[in-house]
Design the sequence.
């Protein structure tokens, strides 16, 4: 007679099956290439909880911003002036977008684009170089980014609404030290980076991460050096629980991703996959772009062969790094995920592939399906009705 398998043993087997070979609980993702519209390449920079994705399409002579939804596919956002470059950075759950582009006089302008309406150019600080950029926004449509002031210095700013004048958030190095706000959460807590001294085009080692609240003003955060008051870095995103992620310099001079609790000031390294490489002029072990309210964090790292790989960190797994390429079940041959730049509440992730295409991955396999438009469904039902009518006529 066969012995029954104890239910405890079955439970252990199920847990092991749900766990990857490195001992981490690993989700399964499904991949979708978002295409390039009529361009030559594309990249995604953000998405909302409805899986609306924003980013840029690159052309031989410039770039344009796009919005993608599963129902409508990729659509152009529309430039601030005909023929000028523009892009969207982030989109909130109302479908409102923050970004930047060039106007008809070739001035770089930050914009706010309400869902279904034209873009609105944001106000600027007074000065001889009226450049602005909108980097991110929250659910109240508070917008952050930078604007140049009268000294032609780039200042971290917030627009409390699209019609408001920008408010300077401060500086870590005086009036001539530049800065940039990178993200704002629904509690109006802001993160970014600021120079700690007057800007020198030959000196890129004095950008420091900061957080800002109404009560504290701008507060300097540490780095990953033994002396955390030295080195450079930037805070890239903050979730609604106050968890900050970004990148900071290590003792070797190579930058590495970090997480940090709001108000703590200290930063904790997020491990990479053992390699390093150059991105944007800096050497990196890893880079964190975005975090959701479950503390799931996305970015990139370099593996032991120094190849850039999109990656994922999760505090449920003690912040251990996972290569997203190992978690996707339907990646086409020859395609890899190179960087993950945005993540929503459900854990859907966007970024760019090794073939320079924007992508989205989801634990929901329906992400791979393009819904049939209602008009085609109506046409199909009509054709079926005509077929049935003809069959009945022939059958008489």
Sequence:
């Amino acid at each position: 007679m066969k012995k029954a398998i104890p239910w405890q043993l079955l439970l252990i087997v199920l847990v092991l099956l749900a766990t990857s070979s490195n001992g981490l609980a690993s989700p399964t993702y499904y991949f979708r290439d978002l295409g390039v519209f009529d361009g030559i390449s594309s990249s995604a920079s953000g998405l909302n909880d409805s899986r609306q994705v924003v980013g840029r399409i690159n052309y031989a002579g410039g770039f344009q911003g796009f919005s993608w939804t599963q129902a409508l596919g990729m659509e152009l956002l529309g430039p601030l002036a005909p023929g000028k470059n523009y892009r969207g950075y982030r989109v909130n759950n109302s479908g409102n977008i923050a970004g930047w582009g060039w106007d008809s006089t070739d001035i770089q302008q930050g914009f706010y684009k309400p869902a279904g309406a034209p873009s609105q150019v944001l106000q600027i600080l007074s000065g001889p170089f009226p450049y602005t950029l909108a980097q991110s926004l929250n659910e109240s449509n508070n917008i952050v980014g930078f604007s140049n002031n009268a000294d032609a210095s780039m200042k971290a700013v917030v627009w409390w609404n699209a019609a408001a004048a920008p408010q300077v958030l401060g500086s870590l190095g005086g009036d001539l030290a530049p800065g940039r706000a990178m993200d704002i959460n629904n509690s109006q807590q802001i993160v970014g980076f600021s120079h700690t001294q007057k800007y020198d085009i030959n000196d890129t080692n004095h950008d420091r991460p900061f957080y800002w609240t109404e009560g504290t003003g701008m507060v300097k955060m540490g780095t990953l050096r033994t002396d955390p008051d030295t080195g450079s870095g930037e805070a890239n995103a903050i979730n609604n629980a106050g968890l900050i992620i970004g990148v900071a310099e290590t003792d070797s001079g190579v930058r590495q991703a970090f997480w940090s609790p709001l108000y703590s000031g200290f930063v904790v390294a997020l491990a990479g996959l053992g390699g390093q490489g150059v991105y944007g002029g800096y050497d990196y072990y890893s880079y964190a772009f975005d975090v959701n309210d479950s503390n799931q964090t996305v970015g990139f790292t370099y593996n032991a062969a120094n190849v850039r790989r999109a990656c994922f960190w999760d505090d449920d797994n003690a912040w251990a790094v996972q290569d997203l390429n190992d978690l996707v079940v339907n990646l086409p041959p020859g395609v890899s995920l190179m960087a993950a730049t945005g993540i929503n509440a459900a854990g859907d992730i966007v970024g760019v592939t090794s073939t320079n295409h924007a992508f989205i991955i989801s634990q929901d396999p329906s992400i791979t399906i393009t819904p049939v438009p209602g008009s085609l469904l109506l046409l199909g039902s009509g054709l079926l009705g005509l077929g049935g009518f003809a069959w009945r006529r022939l059958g008489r």
About this structure: The first helix runs from residue 7 to 17. Residues 1-21, 376-381, 389-396 have pLDDT under 50 and may be disordered.
